[in-house]
Amino acid sequence: MILVFKRLIHNKDLLKEFIRRDLHSRYAGSVMGIFWSVIHPIVTLMIYTFLFSVILKVKLGDQPGMTNFALYLFCGMCPWMAFQDAVQRSTSSIVDNSNLIKNMVFPAKILPLYLSCSSLITGLINLGILTLAIIIILKFVSPFIIVLPLLLIFQLLFALGLGLLTSTVNIFFRDTTQIMGVFLTVWMFLTPIFYPESLVPERFMSFYMLNPMTHLVHIYRDIFLNNQMFQMVNFIYFAVFSVFTYFAGYRIFTKHHRKFVDLL
């Protein structure tokens, strides 16, 4: 974890420029620019609300945060979309920026780092829309949002660690980008985003609880929808898994990064 903050401080100006350029490039040439990052989640939430609350009339129970399936679904999608975007884009980041990597002075680790930070910023916009929708529809705002910065640190570590790992593997095996696209899709449906954990058969629960994203989604729903502090066991599991993933990805990336120039 300390390595992340050291790199943030040491390359803060370069990192800020890369993040700015990435956010700008997503909407380059459009009239509304970065405001599309606000409009898109609003439209998505409206579609979810109309489809699941008006057409299908889906309800998941009597809990305050569970009676509106659109909010329930969007709350699970917010952390997942930020995570998926960071990992998917980080996987191809080294190959896509081979011209920079061939410059031996350039810090290669900053590529997965800025993409993870950029995805996290987009995710925060989605969370802002979710919070506003909860205030309007459910008439409350959870005071436990105060712990969100701590959670985001581990969320960043998890996405960054996996991004460092997959971007390294992609150098040696270029099909990794396509494989990760399929893998992340399967992973998404094996995470209780579109359905509650209570619907998972008991014999599969042990497998589901090994999934760190299950714990992360559960934490988000506790904070935003259930208006309660997350279960500490969920947080500890996700935090430990995130730190382990980061250090594993960092070590593998560091061990092989000198070979990148020859393989690109």
In words, what does this structure look like?
With 264 residues, the chain is mainly alpha-helical. The protein has one domain (2-263). Helix content is 73%, strand content 0%. It contains 13 helices and no strands. It has helices at 2-10, 12-26, 36-55, 69-91, 93-96, 98-101, 110-137, 148-172, 176-189, 202-210, 212-224, 232-256, 260-263. The protein is globular and about 55 Å long. It starts with a helix and ends with a helix. 36% of the residues are buried. The mean pLDDT is 85.
Low-confidence stretches: none
Distance, first to last CA: 29 Å
Strand content: under 5%
Overall body shape:
globular
Please report the number of helical segments.
Answer: 13
**Number of β-strand runs:** 0
Strand/helix succession: HHHHHHHHHHHHH
Helical/strand content category: mainly alpha
Counting copies of identical and different chains, the oligomeric state is single chain
Average pLDDT: 85
Radius of gyration: 19 Å
